[in-house]
Each structure stands twice: as structure tokens, then as C-alpha cells.
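Entry 14. Structure prediction run on the chain below.
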Amino acid sequence: MKFKAKQIAEILEGEIVGNPEAEVSKLSKIEEGESGSLTFLSNPKYNSYLYTTEASIAIVNKSFEPEKEISTTLIKVEDAYKAFSKLLEFYNEVKNNKEGRENPHSIADSAKIGAKEYIGAYSYIGENVSIGENVKIYPNSYIGDNVTIGDNCTLFSGVKVYSETQIGNNCKIHSGCVIGSDGFGFVPDENGEYKAVPQIGNVIIEDNVDIGSNSTIDRATLGSTIIRKGVKLDNQIQIAHNVEIGKHTVIASQTGVAGSTKIGEYCMIGGQVGIVGHITIGNKVRIQAQSGIGKSLKDGDVVQGTPAFNYSDYNKSYVHFKNLPNIATTIHKIEKELNTRQNKNE
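Output returned:
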């Protein structure tokens, strides 16, 4: 896709300094700019690159005044960083603005699909599925029976949504996600062999949820696994059966949450965190990366470590931990001196 400076300026409500017909078809860093690319400058530290970049168009702050001649066409805005972010959003909308149905695909006669849909090739949509308007389902996706999907959702290629799952409005689910697979429920029989417990619940994902690539959310044994509105999940996250995650909580990559744990609202959970089952995490809790959570946490707790404890105490303890060899040597010296003195006194 190609855009002219005057089109970009109109989108950003910016002022053009240079050629309004300058044309771009790609994005670049300012230090790597080349002809036909669009870049931006918001950090004064990079000002020098504006005089050498070969980018055709650069977005800059209104306050920027060049100290020498510039060949690049400038678009001046109030905040270059925010303007560039807005432009990226616009670009994504245009790039992903697909409609229609590619062949081959399989859609059950009982499925209901709203207007402005995009159904990619080799997608399967099962019986009694209900899909809202402006939903995009990319190639090789699977939507099981009795699934509901709200308006303005995007399911990227290879997403698998098992039966009975409910997905709200404005959700984005990235490639490789599996939603609604069986929870990890097994019981040993008299011979010590494990038999699967039927998982007959479902998954409920509320509005404005983003789920990163290759994450999995298991269906409940009974009832629902629930992801509340505004939750953001990174790539490669495991959410077990009957877990509930409160609204606007964010979780970083490779975190695993075991069954029936309840996580509160507005929590921030770092990468590679492990959380045991059947506990409660309060609201606005912060868990640092690679922590192991083995017990419930109160509202506002900030923890780190395995097992996790108060973040400030962890940092103080870690200073001593790094010095343990020296501390041990010192203790041995003190013990030796005490023993020597004691022997002399005897």
C-alpha cells in the first residue's frame, strides 16, 4: 500500500513542510530510513539522523526547528510518538480490512454470521455457531459447535475454539491459540491407572480481551473458566480449568495458572510465573517474573521469588544471598577464633 504525505497529514491533522506528493510504502527507523519509507522523530537524541536519513517522509513534533537543510518531507504534529502510533493503528486497520469468504471453507447451515465478515480458506465453522458483525477469521481456524463470538473480533490463522465457548466483543486471538480444550482432570483407579474426568464446562471470554500466540485456556470441569473484560494475555500462557481472571489484568509470557485459582482485577503478572491451584490472588497484585506462587495473596501485594515473598524483602535478602560465600567464610573465622579463645581459657 502506498500513501502520500498529504493523505498522512490529513489522518494526523498535521502540517506538511516539503513535498505533499511524497509517497511511502513502508516504515523504517530514522537511522535506517530509505527512499519510499516513513519514519518519525520524537527523541531529540536522534535529531542528527534527520539530516542524513533517506526516508521520504518523517513525522516530527511541531516544536522541531531544523538547524540545516533537510531533504525529507516533514509532517509536524503535536506529539510525534502518539501520531506515529495512531498511524500504525490506521495501517493495521487498512491492512487487515478483509471481507468475504475464501474457498475452500466449511460453514454449517445452522451457523449465523453477521455482516462484513472475513472467513479465510480452510476454516471450519460448526453447528449453531453465532458470529457477530465485522469478525475476521483467518485461514485454518476451527470454530466448534455452539460457539458465540461478538462483534469486531479477530481470530488469526490456526486458532482452535472448542464447542460451547463464548467470546465477547472486540477480542483479538492470535495464531495457534486453543480455547476450550479439556482441563487436566484425571483420577487414579484401583490399579493406579489414571482415568480422565469428563470436562463438561466451557470458557467465557468477555469484551476487549487480547490473547497472544500459542496460549491455551482450558474449559471448566463444571461451570466456566472466565477471562474478564480487558484482560491481556501474552504468548504461550496456560490457563487451567475453572480459573477466573479479573478485569484488566495483564499476564506476561510463559506463565501457568493451575485449576480453580481466582485472580483479581488490575493485576500485573510477569513472565514465567507459576501459580498453584485453588488459591485467590487479590486486586492490583504485582508478581515479578519467575516467581512461584504457592498461597493466596492480598490486595496490593508485590511479591517475588520461589516461593514468593514481599518484593522489598526479596531484594534485601538477595543482596545477602549473593554474599553468602563471604558471609560463611567470616562466620567460620569467628567460630575458629572463639574456639581458640575457649581452649586457652580452659
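The first strand starts at residue 3 and ends at 4.
Filed with the rest of this week's runs.
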